[in-house]
Design brief:
This protein has a single domain, classed as Response regulator (Rossmann fold), CATH 3.40.50. The protein is 38% helix and 19% strand. 37% of the residues are buried.
Length: 130
């Protein structure tokens, strides 16, 4: 689901409606557009062209790995950074997420500061899409 941060034009995204994403992230965002599964997330990314996507790996309909592969295969959307946010956390999971095309990886449980720092780092690297 795309989320617009308070800086003009910056957008980030995640996939499920407030699913475990803490209030601090929603407070950081300016706008939230929800997607309940991987397929809906692809459609939302195409429609809103976020500056950053937080991708849950365990999604219904299409998992986060496949959604990421499809986003990265799209010439218009491939430059959007994707951070995998997952409850996996086993050895090799970060490598699997990166192999699918994720630019970053964070496993649950994470500290709010850790996630917010990662979001800010990626947003500082991208030009706003809007």
């Amino acid at each position: 689901m795309p989320v617009r941060d308070r800086r003009p034009g910056q957008t980030l995204g995640h996939d499920q409606p407030h699913a475990g994403y803490p209030t601090f992230l929603l407070n950081f965002a300016r706008r939230v557009i929800e997607a309940v599964d991987g397929e809906a997330g692809l459609a939302a990314a195409a429609a809103h062209r976020p500056d950053l996507i937080l991708m849950d790996i365990q999604l219904p309909v299409m998992d986060g790995y496949e959604a990421t592969r499809r986003l990265k295969a799209d010439a218009v959307l491939r430059a959007i950074p994707i951070i995998a946010v997952t409850s996996y956390g086993l050895t090799g999971d970060a490598d699997k997420a990166r192999a699918a095309g994720c630019d970053g990886y964070i496993s649950k449980p994470y500290s709010p500061r850790q996630l917010l720092a990662k979001v800010r780092d990626y947003l500082s690297l991208v030009a706003p899409t809007r």
